[in-house]
Amino acid sequence: MKNKYSGLAFLAELLINVAVFSAACAILVGVFSDASLLAKKTTRESLAMAELYTLTEIIKAEGEDALPGAAVQADGSLLLTYTEDWRQSSQPAAYTITLQLTPTAQKGGTLTDIVAVANTQTGEEICRLQTAHYRQNE
Amino acid sequence: MQKKQKRSGIIAGVLLPMGIICLFALGSLVLALYGGRVYKSIQLCGADEFETTITANYLRTKLSQNNKVDAIWLANQGGTQVLTIELKTDEGVYETRIFVHQGQLMESFTSQSKAFAVEDAVPISAVQSCTFSILDDNLFLAEITSPNGAFTRVAFALVQGGSV
Q1: What is the pTM of this model?
Q2: What is the mean pLDDT of residues B44-61?
Q3: Dihedral, CA atoms, B134, B140, B145, B151, nearest 10 degrees?
Q4: Rounded CA separation B97/B112 (Å)
Q5: What is the rounded end-to-end Cα distance, in angstroms, of chain A?
Q6: CA-to-CA separations, B28 to A18, B16, B41, B86, in angstroms, rounded
Q7: Average pLDDT rounded to a whole number, residues B40-49
Q8: Mean pLDDT throughout A83-93?
């Protein structure tokens, strides 16, 4: 009888060990996956923001006509498409940037509000940049 | 009957714990390998981002600090493309020369009269390539590729007077 109980206790201890180890493994795999995803997301955000800055500087210097490959959308916004490594491309895109330009006539020039939004292929917003540019009348 | 009981005792008391210990060891090894791979990929991502961000921000800062008429231009020094930024002071004219040499973005700050020499420059960041262009005299563009292949563009609106 005693022998039977000690055998059961031993088995229970083993099962508890396996359960604890499995739980620890599952948590660690989750943490590793999260870390990997977070690193990729941070890199993506950083490169997206750099591209948004670049586009707004191009508009500031040359106007929206200087954006080659920009497709005009039905709502008047401009759509630019990018590959996985943030090179502009007309192929099916990994990322897109939408530029919404709203010019408002002022006394001596035009004030243009610029809203630039970077999205993933699935439409998830990566980051957005909102700025304005004033161009004096010539 | 006794023999059978002895055998099951060996299985329960020796083989089962040994098997579980082996399973734990194998699980730990797989986890450690997976963790190592994740760490390596995070480090690569970080390094890639760090190099491109450093280079892009460095160029933006240099240009915004010296964004004056006729102060920024591109030159070709013995086959090397050099971004030149001029700084006029009471003591004379100095030039910041930015170029790529052996996988490094380099900067030298010397008197304008001093000839271009790679030895005068200090490394800023590691790059695979970095090409500069100035469009219509008012838009500076740089295309940066990091050592691991990450690509980023830098555009900067110049006050008129930048030239190639």
Answers
A1: 0.78
A2: 87
A3: -120
A4: 10
A5: 103
A6: 13, 18, 20, 59
A7: 85
A8: 85
The full DSSP string for A90-110 is: SSSPSEEEEEEEEEEE-SSEE
Number of structural domains in chain A:
1
CA A56/CA A101 separation, integer angstroms: 10
Q: Which residues contact B158 (CB under 8 A, 6 or more apart)?
A: A61, B63, B67, B72, B134, B137, B138, B139, B140
Instruction: Check residue B161 and give its pLDDT.
Output: 46
- What ipTM does this complex have? 0.71
Given CB atoms, is A26 within the 8 Å cutoff of chain B? no
- Alpha carbon distance, N-terminus to C-terminus of chain B: 97
pLDDT of amino acid A85 = 85
The answer for residues whose C-beta is within 8 angstroms of residue B137's C-beta and 6 or more apart is B158, B160, B161, B162, B163
- pLDDT for B90-103, tens place per residue? 888 999 999 999 99
Tell me whether B12 touches chain A (CB under 8 Å).
yes
A57: chain B residues, CB-CB within 8 Å: 139, 155-157
Structure tokens, B21: 């210990």
Contact at 8 Å (CB) between A36 and B41? yes
* pLDDT > 60? residue A1: no
Q: How far apart are CA B81 and CA B75, in angstroms?
A: 6
Q: Which residues 97-136 in chain A show a CB within 8 A of chain B?
A: none
pLDDT (mean) for A11-28: 89
Q: Which residues pair with B110 in a beta bridge?
A: B95
Decide: B55 and B124 in contact? Cβ < 8 Å.
Answer: yes
- CA dist., res. A14 & res. A35, Å (int): 31
Question: Can you tell me the distance from the alpha carbon of B56 to that of B152, in angstroms, rounded to the nearest whole number?
Answer: 8
Pick the residue of A31, A38, A58 with the most B CBs within 10 A to test the interface with B by mutation: A58
Domain extent at residue A114: 2-136
